[in-house]
Amino acid sequence: MNKKILWVVGIVIVIVIIVLVKSSGTATNNNLFTVGAVLPLTGPAALWGETVKNGMELALEQKTGIKVLYEDSKSTASDGISAYNLLQNKGVDLTVSETSLVAVPLSKIALERKLPLLVSLVATEHSKIVNDYTTRYYTDPTNYAMPAFTDPLSPVIKAKKIALLNRNDELGVSVKDKIVELSATNNKEIVIQESFTPNEKDYRTVLTKIKNSGADAFIFVVANPLEAVGIVKTANELNIGIPMIEASAVFADLDTRKQVGDITFYSSSYDFSLPSKAVDFKVAYEAKFGKEPNFGSAFGYDIVNLIDVCKNKKEAVRECLSVVNQIDGVAGTAKQVAPGDFVVPMHLEKVN
Length: 352
Known about the structure:
Blueprint (H helix, E strand, L loop, with lengths): L1 H30 L1 E7 L6 H15 L5 E7 L4 H13 L4 E5 L1 H14 L3 E4 L5 H4 L4 E5 L2 H10 L10 E7 L2 H16 L3 E8 L7 H8 L5 E5 L3 H13 L6 E3 L7 H5 L6 E5 L9 H11 L5 H16 L6 H6 L3 E4 L2 E7 L2 E3 L3 E5 L1
Parallel strand pairs: 1-2, 1-3, 3-4, 4-5, 5-13, 6-7, 6-8, 8-9, 9-10
Antiparallel strand pairs: 10-14, 11-12, 12-13
Helix pairs in contact: 2-12, 3-4, 6-7
């Protein structure tokens, strides 16, 4: 009889231990701040998805209490919305997204549903992306366009006539509008302005028009390496004969620069690209991933650090983000220039 009682007591103890372990695990999970990341892990913008994710993962190695769930936007708005919905069904505390094509529609959904969203690598106008539930940590059209007109290195300063080519989407149009504004302010005449469909592959016709336009300088706005490399290579093949200035930082990525060989052009870049900046981060990134980081990975790293500041305020994370005035991150110094809008400035670099 005593043996039976001992067996029963033993079984009860085991059951209690199992319940306690499960309860402890649940409590731990409930204490986690869960981030849902909608990133372009495949498609033409996959470079940015991969690098932002890598930067986030590197930052997470130094954090506790934060978990990130990733979904692929496939570089399209429709797939981005599907990925966003999947993450909301998993009960994430905050969603992160990137690129204007995906983040702009998500910001509208976040506002409708009153769910916090943090976006990066989105340079559209403030009014089109930032709202009561969406925070941006990146830059804006002014900082994309400004270096071409103010950096002492820029050939635009001496130019009188400008040719302008932009991607026909939220990003491209926003930066184009700012370039038009700055051209007027600086007494530059835009003699030709053309646009192209996102992920276009053939630029020969439009670049021939630009070559024959009589422009002194050529400014273009792109969103991914496919577009950037295509324009520079085609312009070189056509002997376009005028300085080329990319006003969208795609060529701030060193691997993308290598794809155009020794062709000379100019590109807007973050201070992150300077050899003296973010040295420890660059060493750690290369050790982990076996390659050099770009500014996308820097922004991924910095937004995790920003989230870490507010991870203990799940119910008021948007309000928490709004009271952070400045972040000295590896991408550069980000200042909250307007409610919910953290902006990092840029400079111009001559490539080759």
